[in-house]
Write a structure and sequence with these properties.
- It is a single chain.
- By secondary structure, this protein is an alpha/beta fold.
- Helices cover about 35% and strands about 15% of the residues.
- The chain is built from eleven helices and nine strands.
- Strands 1, 2, 3, 4, 5, 6, 7, 8 and 9 form a nine-stranded mixed beta sheet that branches.
- The N terminus is likely disordered.
């Protein structure tokens, strides 16, 4: 009787351990973890551009949880630098090229993608990122404010130093805005570093405010707080189309410019959802925003424009536009 009872207990024990008497299968004992459908995008784009991206991606991938988190350019780069490949970010979008070059070690290899369609001056030999948009700067004028003040439109950077423009100029701070920095870099390249910084010392006396964003000068022009703004050409064109009395002019030095990028964090490309979203951005959505918002030259064999966008823009000399050079010059900026 004791032997029978012992046998019954052994059978029951095995029944429990093996899962209802079944055979233990090491391949199925651990539950399979489903691949995440959440995609996190860090973006430094303007709100209207992020809204465009979000709408297009959610229409294409309704089953994916796509989150676009806005970060200013500096914070965007600093966060990725601090977190490295362990970041929650899957795709970095609209990050200024200088920062993208600095962060290449944590980006996925994109050499399998065709980059021949992009303008040659926007490409990197490392193939760790792709250009997302080119942003040029212009001297943007509110013609109504100038007329009300009885002032002529400036014809040169030197004109901006005239006392009649005191308090009527807005410029983004180079320390806070990529748009502000491209004006500084362009004049360093054209005037020489010492003369350029001396120029901005004089210009500061006429500047109402050095804004914290590249959109600040255009907003000040819209509100008629200033007559002249050093701002983004495409944004000026968009606002002119909306009825704001703006004109974009370029001085002999040409339009300063920079460009922004898109990349995947290394290892994240293995997630199907992340790769799907990145591929769709690359194949369709980025070109859509170029057509709609920032039509400056991105593609080698394609040209786009928007209403009121100046044509045949001459670009400034932006050589040596590295992150190291940027940090060095910004250390000297006092405003």
């Amino acid at each position: 009787m004791k032997k029978v009872l012992l046998m019954v207990l052994v059978v029951l024990f095995c029944f429990v351990i093996t899962g209802c008497g079944g055979k233990v299968d090491n391949k199925t004992a651990t539950p399979k973890v489903s691949e995440s459908k959440k995609v996190v995008i860090f973006s430094s784009a303007e709100e209207y551009k992020n809204d465009f991206y979000s709408k297009k991606l959610k229409e294409k991938f309704p089953d994916y949880d796509i989150v676009i988190e806005y970060l200013s350019t500096g914070n965007h780069a600093a966060k990725l630098k601090a977190e490295g490949e362990k970041t929650l970010c899957d795709i970095t979008l609209d990050l200024e090229a200088g920062y993208a070059k600095q962060l290449e070690p944590i980006f996925a290899d994109l050499s399998s993608y065709d980059m021949s369609r992009y303008s040659d001056d926007l490409l990197s030999n490392t193939k760790k990122w792709m250009p997302e948009c080119r942003v040029g700067g212009a001297i943007i004028l509110n013609t109504e404010v100038l007329k009300a003040k009885g002032l002529k439109a400036p014809q040169s950077y030197e004109d901006l130093l005239k006392p009649e423009y005191k308090g009527l100029i807005s410029m983004p701070s180079p320390k806070a805005s990529g748009t502000g920095y491209i004006f500084l870099k362009a004049l360093v390249n054209s005037m020489g570093e010492e003369k350029a910084f001396a120029y901005f010392d004089q210009l500061s006396k006429n500047v109402l405010q050095f804004t914290s964003s590249g959109s600040g000068p255009v907003n000040a022009l819209i509100n008629k707080e200033v007559a002249i703004g050093l701002g983004m050409t495409a944004q000026g064109a968009l606002k002119k189309t909306e009825g704001v009395p703006l004109e974009m002019v370029f001085f002999k030095e040409g339009s300063p410019y920079t460009f922004y990028t898109v990349a995947m964090i290394k290892g994240k490309e293995k997630n199907k959802a992340v790769k799907d979203v990145f591929d769709y951005l690359n194949s369709t959505v980025i070109e859509g925003q170029v057509q709609k918002y920032y039509p400056e030259k991105l593609y080698k064999d394609k040209d786009y424009t928007i209403k009121n966008m100046p044509e045949n823009i001459k670009y400034a000399d932006m050589k040596n536009n590295t992150i190291e050079e940027k940090e060095r010059l910004l250390a000297k900026w006092n405003y």
